[in-house]
Each structure stands twice: as structure tokens, then as C-alpha cells.
Amino acid sequence: MTKFLSSARVALMVGLLAVVALIAAACGGADPTATPTATPKPADGGSTEPAATPTPKPVDFAGKSVRITVGFAPGGGFDTFARVFAVHLQKTLPGNPKVVVSNLPGANTLIAAKSVVDKPVSDNQVDIVLIISTLIQSEVLTGVDDFDLKDFTILGAPDYTPSDQVWCTRTSVADSLDAFFALGRKLTLAQIGAIDIYATSSKWTINEGMPFDQVFGYTGTSDMNAAFNRGEVEVTATCRQSEVLLNPEWATGYATPLFYTTVLPQWVTDGQAQGKWGWVKPVTEVAQERFGTTAASAAAFDTYMKVAATSRVFAMPSKTDDDVKAAMQQAFNDVVGSEAFVADMVQRGLDVGLITGAELGELINGLANSDAATLDIIRAMFPES
Amino acid sequence: MMFEAAGAALSHIATWQVLLALLGGTIVGVMSGALPGGAVPTLVVLLGFAYGMDPFIALPLAIGMVATVPTGDTLPAVLLGMPGSTSGQATILDGYPLSQQGRAGEALAAAYLASLLGGIVGAAFLFVTIPVARPVVNTFGAAEFFILGMVAIAVVGVVSSGAVLRGLIAGTLGLLIASVGYDQNTGTSRITFGVNYLWDGIPIVPVVIGLFALPEFFDLIVADQPIAGKTSQAKLKEAMSGRRTGMTSVLRNWSLVLRSSALGVFVGVLPGIGGSLAQWLAYASARQTVRGGTERFGTGDIRVVLAPESANNAVDGGSLVPTLFFGVPGSVGMAIFLGFLVVLGLQPGPSMLHEHLDLTLTIAFALVLCNAMATALMLVFTPQLTKVAFVRPNVLVPIVFVVLAMAAFQAKFSVLDLVVMLAFGGLGFFMKSYGWPRPPIIIAVILGGIIERFYAIAAKTYGLGMFTRIPVLVIIAIAVGMGLYTVWMQRQVARSKAEQDAEMAVLAHQEATPVQEEPAPETKVEAVKQGLDRRLRPTANGLMLGLVAVAALLFFFNSFDWPWVAARLPRLVSIAAFGLIGIYLVRHLISPPAARGRIMDIGRSATDASPEEVRRRTYKAIGTTVGFVAGIWLIGFQITVPVYIAGYLYFFGKVRWWVAVLWAAAFVALLHFFFTNVINIVWPVPVLDAVLPGILTGQ
After folding, report:
1. Would the N or C end of chain A have less CB density within 10 A of its end CB?
2. What backbone torsions phi and psi does residue A146 show, to the nearest 5 degrees?
3. Selection from A331, A376, A314, A320 nearest residue A160 by Cα
4. How far is B392 from chain A (nearest CA, A)?
């Protein structure tokens, strides 16, 4: 009897495995292509600089596997990005290795970053980690326990896009920038947490005198948008082109754009072409006009925004073989620069724009080597603790 | 347009490829629900293959895998008293006692039919909501979520029935557990001791498994008898029958099933609340509103199975609304489903209402069909599945434990997941043994984050004005109405009971009873003194009070280093915990300890073993489980799991050596093929990896 039941449980397990295997077999697939270049290498003092690599040898990845460890849970933006990237990387790397995505969520991607550094180097498996750029920013600005930039070779970021972030208020609250300031009170502004780009850039505006009262606790951009749509908050910093496509009513009277960060999104440009929203200018200009913000502070903001124009950073443990790193850097550049990848990202509404490890390293070094006053202004954009 | 799209959706779904995908998804869904850990691992597998799939096949496959998990998780809840996923906890309270009474077949059949009806209600809601989805979801904001959270806290009181003070103290512990981790409002790290694992708080899955599943597991070892008691052919037959009785009970309680389903849909629509709360709300609502609920729930009442099961399956229909139309998921399963949509190349939002309306309706139809498939499958296999309740514990134990451990490990893929599971397992076993209700802890853990987050938002955005919002007033009115109805019903019950007692008293008066003599005054004083001495002795309950007090002190004193926004909830809860502990101690000292009433939790299984034997088995339970976790820490999963399974089965289960080896091999295959190669788990590096590099991790 017991044996029969034991067998029944085995059959149950085997059944589950069989169905999963069936799905895997039905949907699997793979392909390849690539070459190597110089890689950035983090230097002492928490910064990165390109490594002086001699001409790297070509690497054939056949028979190896590449693991991309994502620092967030399955299903979110980072995970989705990594999974689409993995498909293209597999096609691009010489030898078409198996590229797998694993999730190791926790501590703002610190746990994932630490896991690849702690792991011994393997001949058969190449490790990549997808971390959030604020982890690097925090390390440069204030230092992060258990994280050292020297342990990583940064491949680059596939979502580097000069920020088209616009702060909007509901038109029922204020229908122009003057009306916004004429309210003479603080307006509630939706935020996720205290260290993402929406929060840090808004914090700079508040430090300069902008009448915002940040409301933290939303779970993502969609959640902030929903709060703005239901009238729960008066301002949102998410009026980017991609978000307006999901909330078309914003461009047709629901929202009033106030000012922007680095570049104007298309929907505002279109509106301005029709004679609307002539007051929309860079936030630094508005701050200088309204609050007398210094040129140094505005420059610090711009320096920060250049580094913060990406959130997803791909990196490898720096102890990985130099030739493998070089080959991976080339494949990374090829994937992110390819039309197919760009089309996939655009179709999914995800930001796409290549910044290589060397370029990102330069920006990070630039931030790290800023003068003390600039660093103080940038540090003040982050929470004290 | 809607009808055209519905026609197109029907024609898509009526193809054999889609039906096969739906059936495949359903089979995986019910199986992953039946195994602790829920749908997350299998959904991750699907996510890995989503790129390039045809959405009309991929989405029904995914829906089958997500929506049928609550149907599958009834099985371990009823048969083993262990939740299969985070949505199967409330079913345990009466489902497991029914199983212990040999009525597992009846409970399962009732649960499956209720699940089907819940699923249909959910799908119907999704269908009719499509034209008005945006205004419906926009009605509910932070103020409403906060008030709902506060109303739901009342559920802690309901599930504490029979031990209200203990339930409330346990609830404060749950709220403190929910406060651990990084506070995103202020960037404050709360009671993390510098451990990165605790940065995002204590993960709920190992806590649920520890609190609910491990105690049953320990109990199984200590009682050393099958779940349904001593096996007899007659009992086995009785358990396997009862399907008709179970299904009839659904029809008899149709209004309860419909009400619970509606509640499930409502909770599902609110993305901030989280689906796992639906079962508790349905449970509490049923207990307070059905006749005899307050007296009979907890003893094996089939209605306790019906309410949470119908609510669970209705949740997905509701939660698809914010997921599809706003891109705001309400649960872990829906978050993965959302990622799945994006990898497929679809953008959640208005396009799902316009360009992809046919896909949205395909999802609605798939929801109905997969629930029907799941119910049919489970009903067919129920007689066979109920046999699990009759398996020898020493055969069941190692297999169940490894499955539990793997489920807990998927929280953060860390050995600390297993440590959390063990710690809460110990706490759960203690609570179960000494009459402390466990549900309040879990409900408080779920609600702690909700209340804190939405209070922070609502206080800033609405201030006191939140209490004047129409939806808030409606929620408060419904809650007050339900409360008044409960009081009225309890009075009715008390009145009829008083009348019955009066009749009995008249009957009793007719029988002569000797008058008892008053004890002498000095004897009374001596008795009081002895009673006081006894109450001042340290007791097991003191341990629980001590634990809560230590947790409260830790939070209270540390909170002064945090900004007010991060400190307010833990500080308030700590103060409440001190107050409740004080009341408990005063009551304990001034009044004799009353006989323990029936609490809303399942108790320990009876055993006729000697105290020495019970102690020996307890040591065995602790030794093997702690040894297992230590083994994983030292030498990793790949070696510990087969050694544990084969060893346990051979030495304690007394199975033949080759059966033990076969089971061990099956798990090795599961670890290697499924976890390592399909879902690509990053195995923790064992401590001894330095000695045997690469071998212990299987990489």
C-alpha cells in the first residue's frame, strides 16, 4: 500500500516535470555572432577606467553557458529587459552559448552583485549581473557596504537615454507655470522610493525651493500614473513620452507640463508647435529664474543627470578572463546597437540607448572626481540615511 | 466592437492548439498549487520561453498556470494541513479537521466546485468590467486601501476568537515582523542588523511555511500515525467517497459561495491589497454571517472550506483588471504574468482595451475554461489523492520536508530562507502546542506593509479629508453594518442558548442533588495561596510573551534613531504590545487560569505514545530538520537532499534500500533538470565549497 502511494507521488512529480519539459521543448531555441574590444576596469577609489588590454584573443563560447543574474524578482522591468537581451546575446556571441537568466532579488541588486563576485571563476560559465545604477551612484557618493566597484567590469547600459522627464500637474490644479507658482503652497508629488531618479531629481528641485511635497510609497511608474489620474496627487514627474503613450489623455488637456530635465519629449514639442505650453523649459533654468539657483548647483544637477540617464547596468566580475570580458563587451555593444534589439525594446515600450562600459566609466569617474561642493549638492539629493 | 472581439476570441480559443495549451497550463497550475511554493517557479519557466511565442497560445497557457493554483493548493491544505501556496491558509482551519475525521473526499469535492464557481464569477467580472475598467480602478486610492487595511485588521480579532488576548499579542508580533527592512519613505534601515537578506524585510513564503506547514510536519513525526488516524479499509473507503455530499454542500450554500466570490473579485481589483488576504476576509465574513459560524467553525465545518476557496479563485478575475489595463499587478503571480505580457511584445494599458481586445477576451474565456478543467481533473483524481492522508508518516515526512524547504528557498534563494522557515516553524509548533492562534501573525504580516504604506500616502494626500471620501464612507458603513449584524446574530444565538439552558435547568431541578459544603475559611486561603504560587511559576506561555516583549523592546528603542515616518508604526505597535502583555500578566495573576477554549487554529494530533517516546520523536523531528538545513549550509543542496531522503526513508521509513535510492534519485533529477537547468537557480555556495570547488553546487 505504502509503496503504491509512494509510486503515486513519484508519478505526480514526474508528471510535473514532464509537462514543464514539454513546454521547454515546445518553446526553446537558440542562435549566434561577435568580437572583442577594450573594457572599462574599475580603478581604486570607487571609479572605473578603461583597461589597457592588449589585442584580445577571439573567444569561442560554444559549450559554455552565460548566466545573467538579475537583482530583481521575475516579471519586473529589469527581468523583462534581461530576458529579451538574453535572446539577442545568445544570437550574437560566437558559438551560440546557452544564455540563461536567473533572479536573485534583494537589497537594491546588492545581493545579486555580491553573488557573482563571491563565486569562483568557472571555465564553463560566464557570469553577468544586471544591477541598478543607483547602487553605483550610492557607492560613488556615500559608499555602500559589501559593494566595491573595483570588483566589477562594467559592460555598459542598454537603456541610456537623456532624460525626457517632465513634471506635470493636473490642468484642474494649474493650467500654466505661473498658475502653478501662484498657488503659493506645496503640491503633492508621487514617488516610489527615495533613491530613484524621479525622487532624486525632484529632491534637487525641492532643495532649490520648488513647492513640492513628495509622497512616497507607490510601487512603480504605472502606480504613480494611476495616482495622478485618480487625483490622489497633484504632480507627477513621469510625464515622459513613453508614459504619455499609455495615458493619452495627458496630452489632450488632462495634464499641464511644467518643466523638464534634459530633453523635451515629443508630446510637449508637438503641443508647443500648436502654440501651447510655451513656458516649458529645463528645470535648471526655471530654478535659476524663480529661486536664484547658482550656476554651480545647476551644473551639479546636469552632472548627476548624465550618470542617472540609465538605470540598468550590465557588469561582469572583474576577475573574469580578460579575453572573455573583451568578447562579451563587443557582443554587448553589438546587441544594443542592433536594429533588431532596438525594435524589440520599442515594441515593448522600454528605453533603449547604448552607453558602453568605457563611456559609463568616464561619467562615473567624472562624478567621483567632482569638487566637494558639487558632490555635496548631489549628495543632498539622496536621503540622509 | 465588443461582440466582434468576443467572436474572434471564441474562434481563437476553440482551436485544438489553444485548448491543449490551456490544458497543459491547467495541469501545471494545479500541480504547482498542490506542491508548496505555488506557481512562481513554473511561471518563471514559462517566462524564459515567452519571447517569440504566439500570444493566443502563450496567454491561455499562462492563465491556466496562474488561475488554477488556488484549486490545486486545496489538496495539501485539506490532506496535510499545510498551505500549498500563500492562498491556502484559511482552508486549513476546517479542511484539515475534516480530513482527520475521514471526510477528505467531501472537503476536496466541495472545495473544487466552489473554486470553479469563484473562477467563473471572476471571469464574468473581467468580461463586464472591460468597458468601465479605468473608472472602476480609479475609484480606489490610498485612502480606501488604508481604510480597507484597518477594517481587515478586525479579521485578527475574528481569527483570535477563543483566545482574543493571545491573538492580539500574536498580531502585534506580526506587525513588528512586517516592519523589518528598508523603509522606502525615508531610506531608513529598520532592524536589519546589517544583514543584506533583511533589507527587503522578512520574506512571507518561508514565514507561512514555517508557521503553518512545519508544525504539521513536526506533529506528523511526533504523533507517528497517518493523518487520518489508524488506517482501516472502511475509513479509506469513506474518505474516498463523499464527493457527492461535498458538491451538494456547495449548492446548499450557494449564497455564501457567491458572496465570497464577490469579495475575492473585490480584493483582486485592488492592486495594493494582495490576493492572499481574500481568503481571510472571506473566512471572517463567513464566520460572522452564517448561522452557527461562531460556534462551529474550527471543528470541521464545510462552509469554512467553501468561503476561502471560492474567494481565492475569484481573485484572479479581479486582479487581471489592474494588471491588464494599468500595468499594476496585485500579486507575485500577476507581476510575473505582467512581465510575460511585455516579453510577448504586449504593452499593458489602453491598448489591451482597444487594439488587443480580442486577446483580453481570450484571457477571460481561458479563465473560465481552465477553472472548469482544473475542477474536472481534481474531481476525477480526488479518490486517489485522498489516500495521502493514510500514508505512513515516516514515508511522507522526508518527501514533504524537502518540498517545503525548496518552496521556502525560492523566496530569496538563500540558506537564510531555510533558517527563517525553521525559526518560524519552531514558533508555529510552540503556538500550536500551547493554544496560541497562528493566523493573526500572518494576517498582521500581510497587513502591516499595506497599512503603513497607504497611511503614509493618504495622510499626505488627503489628510483628515480621507474620512469624508464617499468610497471610504461606504467601506466604513459596510464594516459597521457587518459588525452590528454580527452582534445581533450573536445575541440571537445567546438568547436561544439561554432558553435551552433554562429548560435544562428545569429538568435538572427535578433530580435531587446533594448540597455541597462550603470549605473552611483557612482551606480557602491556602487554596488561593497555592493557586498564586502556581501562577507565578514560569510557564511555556511566558516564553511567547518574552519573545514578543523582546521584539517590542528592540523596535521601541531603535525607533528613536529613525525619522518619525519610519518610526511611527513600529513604535505604536510596540507600545500596544507592552499594553497587551501587561493585561495578559495581570489577568493571569488575579484570576485562575481558565480551561483553554477552542481557538481558531488546528491543534496537536492525539497520540497514545509514552512521554519518553514523544520526547524522543520530538528530538528526531528537530534533529533531522536542523541537520538538513545545516547540511545545506555546509555541503549544499545537491548532496544533502538525496542523503536526507534516502537516509530517512531507509532508517525511519523502513522501506527497502532501492526504494529509498529511487526517491533520492528522483529528487536529484528534480534539482538538476528543473531547478538548475530550467529555472536556472543560483545555488548558494556551501561553506565547504572551498574543499570541493564546483562539485557541491553541481556547476
Report:
1. N
2. 70, 10
3. A314
4. 7
Q: Give alpha helix (H) positions in B199-292.
A: 204-208, 214-223, 233-240, 243-252, 254-269, 276-289
Tell me the three cell numbers of residue B2.
Answer: 465588443
Beta carbons of B427 and B533 less than 8 angstroms apart: no
* Ramachandran region, residue A75 (left: φ > 0; alpha: ψ -120 to 50; beta: rest): left
Contacts of A69 in chain B (CB under 8 A): 682
For residues B270 and B140, the answer to whether their CB atoms sit within 8 Å is: yes
Predicted complex ipTM:
0.74
Which strands, in side-by-side order, build the sheet including A125-132? A98-103, A65-70, A125-132, A312-317, A152-157, A355-356
Whether the Cβ atoms of residue B569 and residue B577 lie closer than 8 Å to each other: no
Whether A230 has its CB under 8 Å from any CB of chain B: the answer is: yes
> pLDDT 10s digit of each residue in chain A, 385 long?
444 444 444 344 334 434 433 333 333 333 322 323 233 333 333 344 444 456 778 889 988 889 999 998 887 889 988 999 999 999 999 999 999 998 888 888 999 999 899 888 888 889 999 999 989 988 888 888 889 999 999 999 998 888 889 999 999 999 999 999 999 999 999 999 888 889 999 999 999 999 999 999 888 888 899 899 989 999 999 999 988 988 889 999 999 999 999 999 999 999 999 999 999 999 999 999 999 999 999 999 998 998 888 889 999 999 999 999 999 999 999 999 999 999 988 888 788 889 998 999 999 888 888 999 999 999 999 887 5
User: Nearest Cβ partner of B45 from A24, A105, A247?
Assistant: A24
Taking CB atoms and an 8 Å limit, are A76 and B339 in contact across chains? yes
Q: Which three cell numbers stand for residue B178?
A: 512586517
> Which residues of A, range 185-214, sit inside 8 Å of B by Cβ?
188, 192-195, 213
Q: What Rg do the C-alpha atoms of chain B give, in angstroms?
A: 26
User: Between the CA of residue B698 and those of A316, B424, B637, B692, B693, what are the distances in Å?
Assistant: 21, 29, 9, 11, 10
Joined together, the cell numbers standing for residue A119 give: 563565486
* All residues at 6 or more sequence positions from B128 whose CB lies less than 8 Å from its CB, including other chains: none
Q: Which of A3, A23, A68 to mutate to test the interface with B (most CBs of B within 10 A)?
A: A23
Q: Cα–Cα distance between B50 and B46 in angstroms, integer?
A: 6
Q: How many whole angstroms separate alpha carbon B360 and alpha carbon B56?
A: 10
**Closest partner CB to B343 (pick from A2, A84, A125):** A84
Interchain proximity A115–B682, CB inside 8 Å: yes
Stretch (H or E) spanning A315: strand A312-317
Q: Which of B652, B574, B643 is nearest to B617 (CA)?
A: B652
Do B570 and B176 contact (CB within 8 A), yes or no? yes
Which three cell numbers mark B244?
457527492
SS3 content of chain A, % helix, strand, coil (to 5): 45, 15, 35
B332 contacts in chain A (CB < 8 Å): 73, 75
Exposed / middle / buried, residue A49 (Cβ in 10 Å: 0-12, 13-18, 19+): middle
Q: Tell me the whole-structure pTM to 2 decimals.
A: 0.77
Rounded to whole angstroms, the Cα distance separating A339 from A301 reads 32
Spatial CB neighbours of B409, under 8 Å, sequence gap ≥ 6? B417, B418
Cβ distance of A17 and B327 shorter than 8 Å: no
Cell 583597461 belongs to residue: A51
Task: Report residue B105 as a C-alpha cell.
Answer: 473526499
Shortest alpha-carbon distance between residue B659 and chain A (Å) = 8
Could you identify the residue written with the cell 555556495? B685
CA distance B48 to B58: 12
Asked whether B63 and B42 are in contact (CB, 8 A), the reply is: no
In whole angstroms, what is the distance from residue B258 CA to residue A205 CA? 51
Which amino acid is located at B193 in the chain?
F
Cβ–Cβ < 8 Å for A168, A225: no
